[in-house]
TrEMBL record:
This is Carboxypeptidase regulatory-like domain-containing protein. It comes from the Bacteria.
Length: 139
């Protein structure tokens, strides 16, 4: 014989199972198989004060993974797994500024013209340092 609390227990258990299942499915489908990437970003041996690093999958090399953009702050960046890469060939584009806010739109505080680099990332969490030089920014 079932007590009066048994249906309530089944209801609470069912809701709990549904919530856990939805959380697992949502987490795994957000960006399945994506990985964290972090590292240093320097120019001529000095930390890049502020900038952006964008990673675009290299479609010519067959990579169809997600694209990502992350902020470079005081020479460091960290791309979280939720916004991460899937490994494979990527095209990195680095834009760097001196970290100041220009007084007007016609003031350019860029340290150099954007630098584009092709790289291959392993399918796992990792570290990739960008040590840029004047010769890399010349072409």
């Amino acid at each position: 014989m079932l007590s009066g609390r048994t249906p309530l227990l089944f209801l609470v258990s069912g809701v709990l199972v549904a919530v856990v299942a939805m959380r697992v499915l949502w987490t795994s489908s957000a960006n399945p198989g994506t990985y964290m990437l972090s590292g240093e970003a320097t120019y001529e041996g000095k930390p890049i004060p502020y900038g952006t690093l964008s990673l675009r999958p290299d479609a010519e090399a067959g990579n169809r993974g997600p694209a990502s953009v992350v902020t470079i702050d005081r020479g460091h960046y960290r791309l979280s797994p939720e916004r991460g890469h899937q490994g494979g060939s990527y095209i990195a584009r680095i834009v760097a500024t001196d970290g100041t806010r220009p007084e007007s739109a016609d003031v350019d505080n860029s340290l150099f013209a954007p630098i584009v680099i092709r790289l291959t990332l392993p399918p796992r969490d990792g570290k990739w340092d960008f040590h840029l030089t004047r010769s890399a920014s010349d072409g």
